[in-house]
Amino acid sequence: MERLVRSCYKQGGYVFAKKAGSRTHGAGDERIARLASNENPEGPSPAAVKAAQEAVLFANRYPDERVDVLVSALKAHYGDYTFVAGVGMDGVIETLMRTLVDPGDTVVISTPTFSFYGLAAQAQGAKVVAVPRRADFSVDTDALIRAAKGAKIVVLCTPNNPTGNATSTGDVERVLGGIDGVLFLDNAYVEFSGIDYLPLLKKYENLVIGRTFSKVYSLAGLRIGYAFVPAWLQPYYTRAGTPFTVNAVSAAAAAAALSDREHVARYVTQVTAWRGRFAQELKYPVLPSDANFVMIDVAPHKSDDVVEKLAEKNVLVRSCRSFTGLADHYIRVSIGDTWENERLVRELNAL
Questions:
Q1: For an engineered disulfide with 101, which of 124, 128, 183, 290 has Cβ 3.0 to 4.6 Å away?
Q2: Which pLDDT tens digit goes with each residue over 227-242?
Q3: Which residue from 144, 134, 139 is spatially nearest to 107, judged by alpha carbons?
Q4: Which of 257, 286, 312 is the last residue of a domain?
Q5: Would strands 207-212 and 225-229 be described as parallel, antiparallel, or unpaired?
């Protein structure tokens, strides 16, 4: 019966980072430094936990299909924008593709980057066109605009995963003005960058900005993402979405998390300090980053080899070998707790 499986799923798929249950060995300390998945090492805000506990008491009822509790909180936090939600950023991406893309349509992606964009586009039968970044991993805006002629969606991650660098608002605006389709701007890490792309929403009706509660808000396990969308798109996105996708517990926790600015500020401060310390203290080149992770060039070692060697020391990091367009000597390291970061420095420098 395997012949019935679609050809695009016969191989490939999303490559997951090494988890705590993966191959690690005691290195004199049983604690595992989890620096592979760009998670916030601090637990959720107490306000988010309280809201989740209260919401779970009503888990016998279907959640609000409009996610009003979250949308209202987003409007109070950001202003009068139009919002949609999804099961993590992935859910937003998937529903956007389902809303706009017919089989045979073109989706253009600036690479190397998060692989799920391409997977979601393929699921809709799209033709995926990868546009490589320059040698310094900045976006080649001219090439992106040329490739986007006739494309339904252009995808640009900023700050970019896994390279960490952000694209200027000027370059984003140049892309917006040069394409006919929708630009999906993935801002999963924008809180660590100090860059504000939101003013562009007032100028362009083809811009969608996706964000997540998984990183700075410490809610990765509740899987909740959202997007700023043009008003014309919202009813179609809702129509295309799976019913009752965002559960009530996640929505309540996310809405409450927005109010805890101190929780956010603490981790942003930690990230900013450790990006600098990694660059100063590691003996391998650390690429400039605007995110809560850094990409490190571990040449002459191979990325997979380094990941395995660090795992033996109870340090989990991400190999970048699976990212299209990256040489096999880069690893991605999240900014974790101080003890995790210090162990990473010690063990990586010891290679």
A1: 124
A2: 999 999 999 999 999 9
A3: 144
A4: 257
A5: antiparallel
